[in-house]
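From the shared-data thread, chain only:
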Amino acid sequence: MTMTGAPHTGQAPICMPDDVGTFVLAAIDDDGAAGPILRYARAQAERLGLPLRVAHICAGRERMPDADHLLSDALYDSLPPEAATDTERQIVRDRDPAHALIELSHEAALVVMAANSDPAGMPEHLGKCASAVSGRTACPLAIVSANGPTSVAGRWP
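Structure, as tokens:
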């Protein structure tokens, strides 16, 4: 078990198993929370020395080109151009976004996602997907509100 971060850095420590995943996953949607999610995930990827991967789960009839545009817009609006270019992209079609994120967590070192997808909702309240994913990922999970990270939870089998 390796601990990254330290109190004097201003970042919460994250305990990582020694057989850590191969990337940090930023799960985004079209809910307006992509910026804080991507910035936090990028910082964690740099801290862990891992690549950043951004994913969007298509749960309905969304077209793949629309999802690709969503990822591109979010990346280039939220990160410096070189970081946006270097970020891996993944689009997953699954009727259950929580199921898809739990599956993706088996390869990730950290999953970063929004607290909820309702921009008018209370940022400290977990939405349906975040509630379904919390405590079920194979790697640590960071829940991010519109104002930044609200909690980091880890669970390993």
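The longest helix spans residues 34-48.
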